[in-house]
Amino acid sequence: IIFKMTVLLYFLINLSYFIPHITGNVDNADVNSRDVQYAYIVGKVYPPDEQFGNSWQQETYVHLAGGLQKGFIREDGSFVFTNVPPGSYIVSVTNPRYIYEPVRVEINSKGKIRARKVNHIQTSQIIQLPYPLKMRPISQTRYFQVREQWRIIDFLFNPMVLMMVLPLLLVMVLPRMMNDPEARKEMKQIQNFTNYDMPEMSEMITSFFGGGNQPKPRSSKQTKKENFLTVIIV
């Protein structure tokens, strides 16, 4: 009997110690929940085409903050997220056939809601969107890469084709340029400029290796006279 009484007293003492803490935590939680103003996130998902039917609704889901809440859409495409605390959330729509652009929704402590575009690169750039949300598809989902088609531009810009075609063009264009009298004059001037008072290669080699007295370079007039005399003698 004494043992039972001691166990009962020990149980009552522990119970009296824990009851105030439990009630105090509950009261504090009630006070905090009253201070927080929960909001509703409302929007509408538009189908890819008005004549698409109702099958897209069965495959479409709306996610809040990457799966914090998951919802379905109604027959008219509308959706509602209830009891959303203040914060910044991303609302996204998933569909196996179409891609929807996500929207960032910001809720302040007073329950005011602002929607803007999602920009992970420039977070300071704010582009506001209308609220309630209007989720429209951007493009169709592509699970396979489209096979490249044959195009004549790719064929012409191929390096091997360019190496074959450019020499042919030069062969066809250069003769026509040579028939032009102005082009001929320019070519003759260039040749005369290169050959003007240039010594022969044999004289340059002998002067370089022989050293000593270097023979003077012959002028063009002397060479012409010598050639003329040799022709007369012959």
TrEMBL record:
Pfam families: EMC7_beta-sandw. The chain crosses the membrane at residues 155-175. It is a single-pass membrane protein. Keywords: Membrane, Signal, Transmembrane, Transmembrane helix. Gene3D superfamilies: Carboxypeptidase-like, regulatory domain. Its main location: membrane. GO terms for molecular function: carbohydrate binding. Residues 54-163 form the ER membrane protein complex subunit 7 beta-sandwich domain. GO terms for cellular component: EMC complex. It is found in: Membrane. Belongs to the EMC7 family. PANTHER family: ER MEMBRANE PROTEIN COMPLEX SUBUNIT 7. This is Putative conserved plasma membrane protein. It comes from Rhodnius neglectus.
